[in-house]
Amino acid sequence: MNGQLKADTIDLMARQSAQLVSLSALTHFVSPRLSGPDSAHVRLLAESEADLPPILVNRRTMHVIDGMHRVHAAYLRGQSTIEAVFCDCDEAEAFVLAVKANVAHGLPLPRSDRNAAAERIINSHPEWSDRAIASVTGLSHKTVGAIRRRASGEIPHSPTRLGRDGRERPVDAAEGRLQAGRILSERPGASLREVAREAGVSAATVRDVRDRLRRGETPVGPARRGGGAPAGVTGSEAAGTAPVPPPREVARIHGGSDPGPDLGELVHSLRKDPSLRFSESGRTLLRLLDACTVGPQEWTRISENVPPHRVESIVTAARECSRAWQDFAAELEHRSGRQASG
Q1: Could you tell me the residue range of the domain that residue 321 belongs to?
Q2: 84 in helix, strand or coil?
Q3: Which residue ranges of the chain lie beneath pLDDT 50?
Q4: pLDDT tens-digit readout, 205-249
Q5: In this structure, are 199 and 100 located in the same domain?
Q6: Domain assignment of residue 302, yes or no
Q7: Cα separations (Å) of 39 from 42, 44, 45?
Q8: How many domains does the chain have?
Q9: Domain-located, residue 275
């Protein structure tokens, strides 16, 4: 998310042209300000002769994500319309954008409001890391961690955290090592990067796990267990004398006749990644992928309703789309290979 998540309101303002929208069409404010608008700041904006930047509005709901004070100032000026830039997101995403915008510019957001915003984001995005939430709220990651611990009884727990870079890592480092051990035992020829990606750990960790397995030791060393074996590890495993636990089933993209993961579930998982959701190119990619999640029955229904005189054109278009996706996948693999070798 680092750099990616920052492509939120600033990115939207830069990439999209503003449109005039009726003030009466705006239905609600998505604001982290618990005390509501600051009347003195509203008057200051209303009396200013400077052109104010456009507000940010959620197209789905017409809720104002950024620009509450500008809207109130427009009413004071007697305006009936205001310039706005639109985005398309759910309410949880809208709140994150609102917090980021209020922290980044305009009237400073009080610390108490930022603390409350962090707790709300922890509830809506429990898989986000403390540093990721800190980058949104303008708090330190230690403060976010303290807020998470206080709210731990009220929020859903996730075995992984999404970092600012969009990578998912296990909260329990021991579990990540055990998963790497399972994968190496199942596929001893797998590359370090491949195992690291599946287990959610670094390549260096995978190398250490592989070396430990070659020495007949458990993937998790005593120093990393805090003096005791991690959950699910028996006493004999802690001593390094037992085999690695049986592998868990890992979803894979299918090749040939091998069953692969459900595309809908895969895209749903990608939609949780803030490094995709909060960049324009990421949202475009998710929309394109989402269009491919139509099930077999739906494809059959669509094919049965294609006009006969358009079958040839649609077949050509479908094959061109397939070719475009294949080229895109090849480009990603090539780029990933270059980065790995560089």
Answers
A1: 296-342
A2: strand
A3: 1-7, 223-259
A4: 888 888 888 887 788 765 444 444 344 334 333 333 333 333 333
A5: no
A6: yes
A7: 5, 9, 10
A8: 3
A9: no
